[in-house]
Amino acid sequence: MTTPTLPAYLTPAYLAALVLVEGGGSGAPGDRGAIQEVRAWLGLDPSSDTVPDNVCPVIGAAVYRADHSTRCAHRNLACSCVSPSKACATWSTPC
User: Fold this and answer.
1) What's this model's pTM, rounded to 2 decimal places?
2) What value, to the nearest 5°, has the Cα angle with vertex 21 and ends 11 and 39?
3) DSSP letter assigned to residue 86
């Protein structure tokens, strides 16, 4: 596996201001999920959310799943980690 050259605009300031959309977007700047953003960095079509071939398949799958999980899934995971005996359905804010 070769290490790709990343674009010059990929600076700490760029990363600090980066906002990713849940599950992916159109692929336009500011409307990308995590996989789409990486695809743009690699010069690939950012409208797709297919994990690139030169990305570790295990890491790519984990990022894909996190990118496509819902707020409810995140909340349920956090709830089960904090208090496994209590159901998240008792929270006042629905998913």
Assistant:
1) 0.67
2) 55
3) S
Q: Mapping DSSP to helix (H, G, I), strand (E, B) and coil, where does residue 5 land?
A: coil
Burial class (CB in 10 A: 0-12, 13-18, 19+), 58: exposed
Cα-based distances in Å from 8 to 2, 11, 31, 42? 18, 7, 20, 12
Q: Which of 42, 68, 43 is nearest to 55 (CA)?
A: 42
Q: What is the pLDDT along the chain (95 residues), one digit of tens a residue?
A: 567 787 888 888 888 888 888 878 899 998 998 889 989 988 999 999 899 998 888 988 888 888 877 666 555 555 544 444 444 444 444 44
| Size of the chain in residues | 95
- The neighbour count for residue 10, using CB atoms within 10 Å, is 13
